[in-house]
Amino acid sequence: MVRIPLLQLSDISLTFGGKPVFQSLDLIVQPGDRVALVGRNGAGKSTLLKVMAALVEHDMGSRVIPPQISVGYMEQEPTMEGFVTLGDYAASGLDTGEMYRVERAGEGLKFDPDRAVSTASGGERRRAALAKIMAEAPDLMLLDEPTNHLDIEAISWVENELKTTNAGYVLISHDRAFLRTLTRATLWIDRGSVRRNEKGFGEFESWRDKVWEDEDMQRHKMDRRIKSEGRWAVEGISARRKRNQGRLRALQDLRANRDAMIRRQGAAAMVLSSGLKSGRKVIEARSVDKTYNNQVIARRFSLSIQRGDRVAFVGPNGVGKTSLLKLLMGHETPDAGEVKLGTNLVPAIFDQARAQLDPNMTLWESLTSDPEMGVSGKADQILVRGVPKHVVGYLKEFLFEDAQARAPVRSLSGGEKARLLLAKLMAKESNLLVLDEPTNDLDVETLDLLQELLDDYDGTVLLVSHDRDFLDRIATTTVVMEGDGQTTVYAGGWSDSQTQKKETAAVEKKNEKKVKAELKIADDKYENGLNFTQRHRLKELPGLISKLEAEIKKLEDYISDPELFAREPIKFQKATDALVERYSALSDAEEEWMLLEEKA
Predict the structure, then answer these.
(1) Do 304 and 280 contact (CB within 8 A), yes or no?
(2) Are 94 and 136 in contact (CB under 8 A)?
(3) Which CATH superfamily is 281-499 part of?
(4) Model pTM?
(5) Are 182 and 162 in contact (CB under 8 A)?
(6) What CATH number does domain 532-599 carry, 1.10.10, 1.10.3470, 3.40.1580, 1.10.287?
(7) Considering only CA atoms, which of 519, 535, 516 is closest in space to residue 596?
(8) CA distance 102 to 89
(9) Taking 70 as the threshold, does the pLDDT of residue 86 lie above it?
(10) From 46-55, 313-322, 354-363, the region with the lowest mean pLDDT
(11) CA quadruple 544, 546, 549, 553: dihedral sign
């Protein structure tokens, strides 16, 4: 059986500012494809996704999507002009009977539909955009960094939804655990070419290294051949000038092909230096309580951080991770308990909001100015760990081009801003590194390099991140914040914390079963009464029945449209199936309620 592609790009070429982004690109996305789109920051991943979504017009080639196929696109920074609330945006384009999908996605992502767009954070906007595309349920989803600014709980919900969907999708993400779990094929943008591998992201690095190894071998063979042919041209051509013009032309072609080979972009030349050693004990928190704006951040919290520790702080957005960091750094005073800082601390802080970067400054000014020290951004050189370097040369070490030095910070992508902030931090020595969401927007190669630097760093690291893979690679201690001041300290990274949490939960569950068994024995003494579990269920059922009745009403209103079946047969069938399922669930719930009510 021949499958009709969801999308086909043929011979696509695209140029920005005279620089080719893609040339002669061919690409097919099949039904059920789960594709990772990877590449260095600035390689053109988001641009390619926009070409797929028909939001960027290509110069040459064709884009074909069958008429019956629907395509949904989620951009990195959703534009919500014209919408008052996040709920208005998420529900736009949906029929009334499909609103339950937005509500369901909203529950999973925990976003407030009544939040005004004007006051919503980047994370809240992203949750609304995800709820919108999940509710629309298109045949092909194009997702640009869907996990950025999401906490681990929300990432897990999106992960589970994408595991079970029938839709095909192409996604860009820096979250390696997310990509490894979901993808079955990989598109790699590298120097204007797009390669495809029919294996998921878990095989990407070995595939990439093999491609580079083959390239190096080809380049080496070509260099040897050019050298050999060049020697022949000098030594042997005079006697056979006329009949060897073809060989000379072949040598010229060989040299032209060698010159046309595009060298790979190197890794950023990042270096971390810890300089002066801190005292053995870096931070000691004892029985700390802290409340901000009626929100409990810490309750009887204690933590001892020694020199060289890598401590990760994880938990839902808004739980107070950044606030706890400020408390531990001595920037805030606890309501009760004490925080003692060690000696000789030289901190460097990578803040989540990138507040150290003035969007109106140029990259040059950002590196050379220091408002606290009264230093303007006019110098040609920057002191890099005590050694003067030219600003442009230092920017090149972090993969910035010459022309970008005088460009404003606001013109940078998210990944480029992260690299610029790292360049500012790494110009100075430190022995206490505070990293608040450093992994957002960074490409895989830069993440790998940052991990290696942190491994070799002699100082202490405090880290906030939702990147489970990065946490597992870096953290020696994980502080899990669950809200309302509840914190638990685990040894190891994220996976270690989850294993320990499950072991603790298993013990608690065993104890709970024992208590319930004792309660059941006591309850069963009353022949005509309800036991503990039944009483709890009787309280739950009225709410469940009301919810099912409301969903049934919405679905009935939706399919009552006489034109719906002819206009949207797939949506009609899905709504009908959902209605049958809810009628069955309502009947079961009502029967269970009547039986329990009679017994009570």
Answers:
(1) no
(2) yes
(3) P-loop containing nucleotide triphosphate hydrolases (3.40.50.300)
(4) 0.75
(5) yes
(6) 1.10.287
(7) 535
(8) 10
(9) yes
(10) 354-363
(11) negative
